[in-house]
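re the bet — no i am not wrong, look at it urself. input seq straight from the record:
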Amino acid sequence: MIRQLWMNKRDGVISVMVLVALILFLVVLALSPIMQQANRYRAELTKDARVLQQLRAIDNARENLESTFTAYQRQDLQNWVYSKTSVDTVTLDIQRRVSTELSNAAAQVLSVSPLPVTLQDEYSKVGVQVKFSATMPALIRALQALEQEKPLLVIDNVRMTPVQVRVRTGEVAPQIVTVDMTVLTFLVPKVNQEALK
């Protein structure tokens, strides 16, 4: 009898343990999709928090951008560069400006020829090759005028060669040089200009 009671009790305990294990398995099976969904929500919330942080940074930078744009307009910086202008128009304008400034400085223009357009750091390099002769004061006046005008021009590859001038005995020969130089500017390529509009 004791043995029978023990066997029934043992079977009952085993049945209860199997039932508890089955219930735990069903609970885990039922909670698994909920846990996966919770993990997905956490990942989305983390991603949304990063996006929100970036948007806040952009909003904080807006004031700085607006003040920079106001300073840009106040200082008339848009006139410092050629913008929305074709390469041919810019080349002709550079030729005109260089010829005018050299003439105003009393220099003798020997040649002005356009340079082929090349790309440098995603910008179109446009310019002219100039050869002229001038006295030193005329050269200085011409270079100062070209440096100070807007839109800005870059003076590059300057080669000066002194010119021998015959003078009478006792006279001081003027210092005349033949100058060969490149005058250029940089433009945003048309593809980028269209993207900026």
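see?? Residues 2-74 form the longest helix (73 residues). told u. also The chain is about 55% helix and 25% strand. so pay up
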